[in-house]
Design a protein that fits this description.
Layout (H helix, E strand, L loop, with lengths): L2 H6 L1 H13 L8 H7 L3 E6 L2 H15 L3 E6 H7 L8 E7 L5 H9 L6 E5 L5 H5 L2 E4 L11 H17 L4 H24 L10 E6 L4 H15 L2 E6 H6 L3
Parallel strand pairs: 1-2, 1-3, 3-4, 4-5, 6-7
Length: 243
Amino acid sequence: MSFEEQIRAQPARLRVLVEAMEGADHPLRSSTARSLLAKPRLLLTGMGSSLFACYPAYLRLAGAGRNVALWETAELLHFARGAIDPETLIVAVSQSGETTEITALLEKLPPEQPVLAVTNVAKSALGRRATLALELGADRSQYPATQTHINSVALLLAVAHAATDQPLAGFLAAARGAAEALETTLADSFARSEINLDPQAHLIFLARGPSLASARQATLMVEEVAGGGAAALSAAEFRHGPI
């Protein structure tokens, strides 16, 4: 599968994830999930695209009054391990389940530490160590994250809904609508002629709230795929700083 094919298949893989979550036997609907999500504190962690994908769920949880933290795994590992205690549920996000920082963190955790894994590979180091593993249902790929990022955002938002006692049905219907909108947007984007940008231009992606996850992911794509320079800022931060 080419990188373009991987991008075009994003709506289909999102639908696969939604269909899985609609099933009564999905792990997120289990008694184990309910017990884990009832922990007094939740800590979301990942690297790069996986970290960005946590942000909408983090805002949803914080807005609902849950005690929640969001940490880049490397910073958590080296500077903030005091943020973890037995009453903290670690929600660890990794496409491969073998991210260097994630596996290093897992090695430092006591065996009884509860971990909820969000990964595309259930048999990975993260999936095996987790108290409960939730699979992304994306295609395996050697390219930068596209399907896994979108599915991580959706799956983590579903986790946030479950952790705040919100029914999944409405969210899953909205996720199906998002897949349809994404399909239309992709078709329109690929049909348009290429936009000519100055290769020396430094791009700044602006957003607020949950959309900051998209701005940060866009920055990563520009840097990692196109080899350009980019930054992601909240609109308020942009007004406060650069302007």
